[in-house]
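Hey, resending since the last one bounced:
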Amino acid sequence: MPRSSFARHVRRMVSTILGLSAMVALSSCAPARSTGTAATAIPDRARAARGATSVLARIDTLVRAPREAVIQRELLAGNIPSFLRTLHTVRDSATTSDGRVHVIEYDVMPDYLAIGDDADFVRMPMTPHTAQVFAEAYGYVLPTRRMVNAIWRAATVKLEPQPLTEAREASGSFLQHHRLIEAQLVGATRRALIAGIKKDVVVSNRLLERANRVAIYGWHHQNGVPIQPLYVGHVDWYVDYSHGIRLVRRTMRVDGAPMSFEQIATHPVLHVLVSDEGALETTRADGELRFGFTTGGELRAGNYGRGTTGGELREGNYGRGTTGG
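The structure tokens again:
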């Protein structure tokens, strides 16, 4: 089978199986728990954990991989401010292709991912790979363009963007921009849902156009117009002060029934609740495809390739169906 035909065949099988499992979930799952719960899976911050000032001094002289390793280690250890642990529920709806209106709810961090404690923290830009590791470890995902727009609409505090023009990739600019945001937030409650302060690192099908890219979008003005259209022009190790990581709890609710982000985003009908690009072919901000099949024919997670520079799946072990096909 030609490679392009094989890739389309795999995507159709994935979409079909996820669609069937999602429809079963809608009809049989118990009602979800109350929303806005604390993100208790993230470890408590250790008393000896370093504040942001110390972490920034540590990474100031580091380049790419060593810098990201430090950021990843601090995050996985739970070195984040306490206010990020109480989530806000965003409610959205859409009319699907069958003419039905469906309602989705998902729980989001009130602000962008930061390192440090409540008194000494900084909103930390990072690569999509670092963000994805933390998200997967504690049951989160990164948003899509549609979700970023919904979060902005739901925000109770909307700030006007504060762009910088020099030393965009320097850790000193990370801190400078953080302080500009903090100056705007004087008098606001720390646990409010805040928007308009960063470009989001997002999940997008456009990550499959070219390998090793980061997708960014957003940074809305107060009139709702984003500074940054959906963009995949940067290589995936590129990070600057304007990039932010907004985490969303992976388990969402569709019409009151719990479903995973992956089930919804790849569903042939329900994807419109989270995606304005059609059903997603990758549900990760690093663009990897993580779909495969067990010997019983059920979908399972695994690293089964990513897009080539032409956007097709590479040849590899993409799983196998049952002996009956």
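Helices lie at 3-28, 52-59, 64-76, 128-137, 145-154, 171-184, 261-265.

Sorry for the duplicate.
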